[in-house]
């Protein structure tokens, strides 16, 4: 009953062996893999993949840096042309019955000049769409954790997953108070921050993710959904429960946020 709420299986890193990767996930006990698009090309691929493989759930996104022409998620050098945001919003709306959530969306202040105002406009458009079509959102918050939480708090949106949230523990607590979910990547095995997050918040606010192919529990390696078990082991240790209990609660969290009608 393992869940991966955030991955990018349509990225180049999985081009050669995607079927094996999905097979390994199933064998490891993974029952749902949310695949996040970041731009039009990947959104189209995510939809196609979810039609072929029932374990794959579509999450269509507008990556904050791509949205304003500041680079690309997979770091492949390419023309940094901004996404046509309004067209992509329309595309997501049109596909609302084929998707489980919207994301990843959010803010990213890692560039020196992040065009934050523009990013915020895009983020708001995506949030409004999520409210309109009643979907949860998966949020990217790199170096803009506080700004993201402020915007989310001032919106009406309730079903929020903060993916790979590296904000300080005060913000972590704040997110929990707002009843958001924090999805914990497998890098928790070697990153104390996420161990502290798990210590700090209730298991009722925790989900698991890989962000595959990124954030592997083994430095320098590609991550994949079959690795989710590594996170469950650590969560069980920290919360002093069995792995099975941890799995069950996280599965029920997944149902609550993504499958409720
Ligand atoms: Zn991601």
How many H/I helices? Answer: 10
Q: How would you describe the shape?
A: globular
Q: Which structural class should the secondary elements be placed in?
A: alpha/beta
CATH superfamily: Metal-dependent hydrolases
Distance from first to last alpha carbon: 21 Å
CATH third-level topology: TIM Barrel
Number of domains: 1
| SSE ordering | EHEHEHHEHEHEHEHEHH
In round numbers, the mean pLDDT is: 94
Strand order of the largest sheet: 1-2-3-4-5-6-7-8
Low-confidence stretches: none
Strand tally is: 8
Classified by CATH, the class is Alpha Beta
Largest sheet: 8 strands, parallel
Rg over CA atoms, rounded to whole Å, is: 17 Å
User: Any guess at the CATH architecture?
Assistant: Alpha-Beta Barrel
How large is the share of residues in beta strands?
A: 15-25%
Describe the 3D structure.
The mean pLDDT is 94. Helix 4 (85-94) runs parallel beside helix 5 (116-133) and helix 9 (228-239) crosses helix 10. The chain has a single domain (2-259), classed as Alpha-Beta Barrel (TIM Barrel), CATH 3.20.20.140. It starts with a strand and ends with a helix. It has helices at 18-27, 40-52, 64-67, 85-94, 116-133, 145-154, 169-177, 192-200, 228-239, 243-259, and strands spanning 2-7, 30-36, 56-60, 101-106, 137-140, 160-163, 181-185, 206-209. The protein is of the alpha/beta class. Strand 7, helix 8 (192-200) and strand 8 form a beta-alpha-beta unit. It is 43% helix and 16% strand. The protein has ten helices and eight strands. It has an eight-stranded parallel beta sheet with strand order 1-2-3-4-5-6-7-8. The structure holds zinc ion (ZN). Zinc ion binds next to loops.
